[in-house]
Amino acid sequence: MPWNGSGRNNFNQASVTMNAPTHSGVYALFNDGHWIYIGESLNVRDRLLQHLRDSHSDCIKQAAPQYFAWELTTATYRVQRQDQLILEMHPTCNQRLG
Predict the structure, then answer these.
(1) What are the tens digits of pLDDT across the range 31-49?
(2) Global pTM?
(3) CA distances (Å), 15 to each of 53, 68, 90, 92, 95, in order?
(4) Domains (ranges, CATH) in the chain?
């Protein structure tokens, strides 16, 4: 199933604070035409802010994502949806983790 969530938002603290939901969902970090990372969280906004503060992934830091987007999902479906998106979109940094 293709991306079914928000459009792109700038990946910076002000934009994440203003635009990212505080609900359960999956999120994507990307640049134009290039998927970098897809993750999941109980609180999408908090997780995106954590990536901005102290990303533990050198891959994400090196890729320097410009944008983020999200899909709201139930907590029980979140990991499954993340895994579907990773298989479909082949984000660079998820492939290095697997």
Answers:
(1) 998 999 999 999 999 999 9
(2) 0.90
(3) 14, 9, 25, 23, 27
(4) 9-97 (3.40.1440.10)
